[in-house]
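From the shared-data thread, chain only:
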Amino acid sequence: MASYRIRQYQEKDYDVVRTLFARGTVEHAPATYRHVLRSARVQLGLLVLFVAVRAATGYWVVGLAAVAMALAATWPMVRSFSTSYVQEALSTDLCDISTSYMRAPDSCFWVAEAGGTVVGTVAVALPQDPAERGVALELKRMSVSKDYRGLGISKALCGEVLRFARARGYGAVVLSTSVVQVAAQRLYEGQGFRKVSSFSPSLLGTLLCFQIFHYRCDLPGGTA
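Structure, as tokens:
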């Protein structure tokens, strides 16, 4: 089993952290596409399209071609969930990681290092939801390289965030993850998180049945 250590972020990690985050996020695009195609709403829409084109042209082959074109057009829309999220992160908090997490109050950024290479990341910061501020901290930017999964790195990174929040007297840690990130959901639930709400990130997300899950872990002894 490969050994690893968890340490705080350093400026030398900048490029590899951004690359690791981007690759890990875009990696979920195929799973998102499969999730969308399994949606009853999308399947019904494809069926209606096939029937309408078949009735209008009199050829079932043309109907199948229309469905194929719709499927091809759906892929870039689905992939945009990942790419737009990556672009936003790289241009905001991950544009200046030290300022966003290492100098900001009640914030931190950790990396997992194996063989001298950064193979995992996680951050903690004040929540985006104003109602949670002063009560909870938010776990963000969790990512582990595909080659190093199954070694307990994600669990160790999550543990760093929970300890950090507990040490500062916060009563909870919150986070968001997508409907297709099943492994992440299992990890968080195993660490004491529970799903408290869900929402679609956009109108397109609603149409394609793509949801974001909001999780919360209550910490014993928190006083903030």
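The helical segments are 14-26, 29-38, 40-57, 60-91, 97-102, 153-167, 182-190, 203-207.
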